[in-house]
């Protein structure tokens, strides 16, 4: 156990002597008023010093622990700040990538919508053509001659000679 400086030791010893003298004065006053003896011995003075040293050590340990906790907390805060800075840089990079991906996605969506419109128009045109042609108006014409339309039901197998072409047309 060491005290910080000689000046501190002098101040503490003067306080102890004042406390000891004050205890003797209170003991004398007790004898006069209550007629009861209370003895102040050097052992009591040494117990006061021991008690002070014990409390001083406990408080220093408490302050040391609080200081260590504060230092650890500050170190964690600095570590967290550095981590946040790194993550902020990564976030900015990823924001750029995300913005580019979103732009590409919007362009692709526009392209898909336009292709779908074209496909819908083609589908409508094919449906209109198929309604106009109708199933009963299709006729199969062979290069050498014409055959009557096929009856409804299962499609018969058509045999043709090599070198001839089958053509379907509307009348």
Describe this protein with a few key phrases:
171 residues, mainly alpha, 2 domains, 3-stranded antiparallel sheet, 71% helix, rod-shaped
Describe the protein's architecture and organization:
The chain is mainly α and 171 residues long. The chain folds into 2 domains: 41-132; 134-151 and 159-170, no CATH class. Helix content is 71%, strand content 7%. It has helices at 6-34, 42-133; strands at 138-142, 145-146, 166-170. Strands 2-1-3 form a 3-stranded antiparallel sheet, with no helix packed on it. The longest helix has 92 residues, at 42-133. The N and C termini lie far apart (120 Å).
Which geometry do the CA atoms define?
A: rod-shaped
Task: Please give the alpha-carbon distance between the first and last residues.
Answer: 120 Å
Enumerate the spans where pLDDT stays under 50 for 5 or more consecutive residues: 140-144
Number of domains: 2
**Protein structure class:** mainly alpha
The number of helical runs is: 2
Number of strands: 3
Helix content estimate: over 70%
Q: Write out the strand line-up for the largest beta sheet, numbering strands in chain order.
A: 2-1-3
Rounded to the nearest angstrom, the radius of gyration is 54 Å
pLDDT averaged over residues: 83
**Main pleated sheet:** 3 strands, antiparallel
* Beta-strand percentage range: 5-15%
How do the SSEs run, as a string of H and E?
Answer: HHEEE
């Amino acid at each position: 156990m060491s005290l910080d400086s000689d000046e501190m030791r002098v101040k503490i010893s003067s306080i102890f002597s004042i406390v000891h003298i004050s205890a003797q004065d209170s003991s004398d006053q007790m004898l006069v008023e209550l007629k009861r003896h209370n003895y102040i011995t050097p052992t009591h003075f040494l117990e006061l010093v021991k008690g002070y040293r014990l409390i001083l050590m406990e408080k220093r340990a408490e302050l040391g622990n609080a200081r260590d906790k504060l230092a650890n907390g500050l170190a964690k805060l600095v570590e967290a700040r550095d981590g946040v800075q790194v993550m902020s840089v990564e976030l900015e990079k990823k924001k750029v990538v995300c913005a580019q991906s979103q732009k590409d996605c919007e362009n692709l969506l526009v392209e898909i919508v336009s292709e779908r419109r074209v496909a819908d128009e083609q589908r409508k045109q094919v449906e209109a053509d198929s309604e106009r042609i109708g199933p009963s108006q299709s006729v199969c014409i062979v290069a050498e001659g014409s055959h009557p339309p096929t009856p409804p039901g299962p499609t018969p197998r058509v045999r043709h000679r090599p070198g001839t072409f089958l053509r379907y047309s509307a009348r």
